[in-house]
Amino acid sequence: MSSVSFGQSFLELKSQLQSTKNDIDKLSLLQKTESQVAHFNYTEQSKYWFLLGTHYEKQRQLNDAVTAFTKGINLHNSHNLSPSSLLVNLHIERSRAAGSVDYYNTTACEDREKALLFAREISQPSLIAKSIAYYAKCLQSEEHGISNSLKLFDEAFTIAKTQKLEPLIKQIIYNQAASLSFRALIYDKAYEYNELAHRAFTATNDTNSVYVSIINAIHYSSALVDIELAKQHLAELKVFAKKHPKFKGAMLKFYYLSAKIAQLEEDWPLSISFLETGLTEITNSQNISYIQATYELLSISYFRVGNIEKSYQTLLIVEQLYPNKKPIKQEILLIKGMMTNKPDEIAISAFKLIDKEKQSKNRFVRQSNIQASKIFDDNLKQLDNIILEQKLTVVLVSTFLIIVILIVFSYLQIQRKKLALKEKHFMDKLLTQKNKVLADVSHELSTPLTVLKLQVESLKDNLEEDVQASYDALDNKVSDIENLIADIHQLAQSDVGALQLNIESFDLNRTLGLWENELSNFVNKNKLTFEINRDLPNGLLVSFDRDRVKQVFINLLTNSIKYTDKPGKVKLSASAKGNTLYLSIEDSAPGILDKDLAAIFERLYRVESSRSRDTGGSGLGLAICKSLIEAHSGEVYAEHSKLGGLKIVIQLPI
Known about the structure:
Elements: H1 10-19, H2 23-33, H3 42-58, H4 62-78, H5 85-101, H6 107-122, H7 125-135, H8 145-162, H9 167-183, H10 187-203, H11 207-223, H12 227-243, H13 250-264, H14 268-278, H15 288-304, H16 308-321, H17 331-338, H18 344-408, H19 413-460, H20 467-495, E1 504-507, H21 508-524, E2 528-535, E3 541-544, H22 546-563, E4 568-577, E5 580-588, H23 621-631, E6 635-640, E7 644-653
Parallel strand pairs: 2-4
Antiparallel strand pairs: 1-3, 4-5, 5-7, 6-7
């Protein structure tokens, strides 16, 4: 092993590390150099702490790794060093090590958020993609977390396609995409992405990541309720633990996960056996989350087999070891409530009530699923019937015209053939249009229905710990479907001339004044400034459906809010020239291409630009605005805004 000379430079240290082949010897060399760190400049000191932390991490000395990474970060902060790729990686690696020690450590996500901010500041695509892959997972506990995570992953995948990234970063993206899919209840995709990551980690001999991917494979196959597959990965984990003894907590995880699989098979005695054996491994583990979870699961298992005394004793150990930590398993709260007077019969009854509640929940979920599917099927049939009715009308009119032409202009055979051919092309185009609309609507409905189905299956299989959150997610998805169906229904009414307007005469200036505060609040709360310019004669009376005009304003402002970069600006203008009223709503960047200006009013049209972000809308808002304006004998069109974004102009007859 290399010796350390006093006063050596950082470059000499790096040279010694490169010539040292064994990772343990490298760590020893770095430890011996710690007394000389003060001789390095601040950037070199920070690099030293990063190297020390990564080698601690390789040897699974996780607490020491966190300490080393923290010293490197503190150096940057205390000496105001500029953001760099080193600072990004220090935050990422500290988050990984801290998360391995305690899964519920909140500072890990804070580090990942900072890493992404610094990566964007130094504009390094590879680091941005890597930071996104780690940080997106942290968003999932927030409101709309899954959709926000998916947006970030879209950015990461785009970078991966357009940039030549290191294989390691692509592996990280796959690994984190698996975690995101698992949180979104898309278990088959989670397993698929994890397998891709696992093969990549194995090919590069990244044993730390291989270890994590094996454990994830057990979790994902368990979520799929594929017991045999889960047992295969458990056997893989056991072999890995024997082959790599430095992963000292691996056997504790093996016994804990084996116990959970035994519980899926309702074999509580076997579960207890695994957990009791697992407790012999706790001295080898630095992961306090798994230690706490093992004790808690053992307490629950004792309780379920009727050994109440052992359940209480085990729970007391948990409270002594972790007096200030919340329980990981929700059932522990029930057992804690029983400890004072030991009302065994009450506890057993409580478990029966829980089982009964689960049965009721499953019945509710099944009914909700049937109802949602029925709504989807009925409305899709209704849409199909409306389109077919329109097609039949065109056929009848076309046929009548052809007959008239044959009788009156029988001598014009060539013209008749041309007309017949034209009608055929028209019919083909109409059929193609109908199929496209049906395909687009089916696609728009399939996403919320797929998530809804997965959520339902998760509830049916009792895989959700937070039942109320699952019910809320179900309710949100049903609302999304209902909103999309309402938009389709309104457009269908417009197509067949069944759209009803409540035309009334009103003072436009006064009405816009009444709406101004409401519209301003609507825009401002979304971090955009709002301005209204009115150049209208006093007492100008107009005859429109007031509510429909307001609906158009809300739809257009919602469109601006969704697609305008924050902070930004939205402007509403109203003026009158002659017998024409001009209304417009425009916003700041980003804008759209010239070729998209007319097409954006088509139903479910997707703009191929920065304004194509997935915002969760139905994709029918502008089409609805067009139908409402045309119902008022007006016209609407789009043009580029001087503010840098999009401008929608409306012309209505006064």
